[in-house]
Design brief:
Blueprint (H helix, E strand, L loop, with lengths): L1 E4 L1 E4 L6 E2 L1 H14 L4 H8 L4 H8 L5 H14 L5 E2 L3 H6 L6 E4 L4 H10 L8 E2 L12 H10 L6 E5 L2 H9 L3 E5 L13 E3 L5 E5 L6 E5 L1
Helix pairs in contact: 1-2, 3-4, 4-6
């Protein structure tokens, strides 16, 4: 399978960084502290902005304050967190200015993760604090495309969560899903489902901006 695009937009957690266990730990802790069923929280938390999860499940709390508390804990919790296999190599293969990160985490959490694992901080990084509506709304990915000066139809998204896939498709973009967080059966909306980033090979077409993305 081959995709042609002008830009590649990456989710962060579960795509470039394997942080699923850390995220789950901190959401479970928050749920117990606030007398909420942890499974109910985890069912909607992955791929969504922290502030929106709080607003949905605990509307009586100060969502902004809870967001800061949860994401500070996530940034400090590095037990079991690692770079996703093939992430560094894949990013190096993409021309600068042709990729970005679009995350449901805050800019503080995103840059903390990237710096800790010595991954490049892209010129364009769209975080939770940069949008009014998070995934599955198309706003985050559309903003990423706009900042990269790429047409949405010429963008390829790499995701790990159904909310992110829906966000990409709602914005008119193709989406590749990784089975790092959800089983393949829950990612069938994606245009391709892969086990890891090592299955993706990127090359530039005719020295122009167009990228040739092969699925191995």
């Amino acid at each position: 399978m081959t995709f042609h695009c002008s830009a590649i937009l990456f989710d962060l957690d579960g795509v470039l960084v394997d942080s699923t266990r850390s995220v789950a730990r901190q959401w479970r802790l928050w749920a117990v502290e606030n007398h909420i069923d942890p499974e109910k929280v985890l069912a909607i938390a992955h791929g969504r902005r922290t502030i929106e999860v709080v607003q949905i499940l605990a509307p009586h709390l100060d969502a902004k304050a809870e967001e800061s508390r949860i994401e500070k804990r996530e940034a400090d919790d590095i037990d079991g967190v690692a770079v996703m296999p093939g992430a560094a190599e894949l990013l190096k293969s993409i021309p600068e200015g042709s990729w970005c990160v679009v995350t449901s985490g805050t800019r503080y959490l995103a840059t903390s993760r990237l710096r800790f694992f010595h991954l490049p901080i892209p010129r364009v990084l769209v975080a939770a604090d940069d949008v009014q509506k998070g995934k599955p709304d198309p706003e985050p990915y559309l903003k990423g495309a706009e900042l990269l000066k790429a047409k949405p139809a010429e963008c390829l998204v790499i995701e790990d969560a159904p909310a992110g896939i829906r966000s990409a498709h709602a914005g008119g973009m193709k989406a590749i899903a990784l089975t790092s967080t959800y089983p393949e059966s829950e990612l069938q909306e994606a245009d391709a489902v892969l086990r890891n980033l090592g299955q993706i090979q990127v090359s530039r077409l005719d020295r122009g901006r167009k990228l040739h993305v092969d699925i191995l």
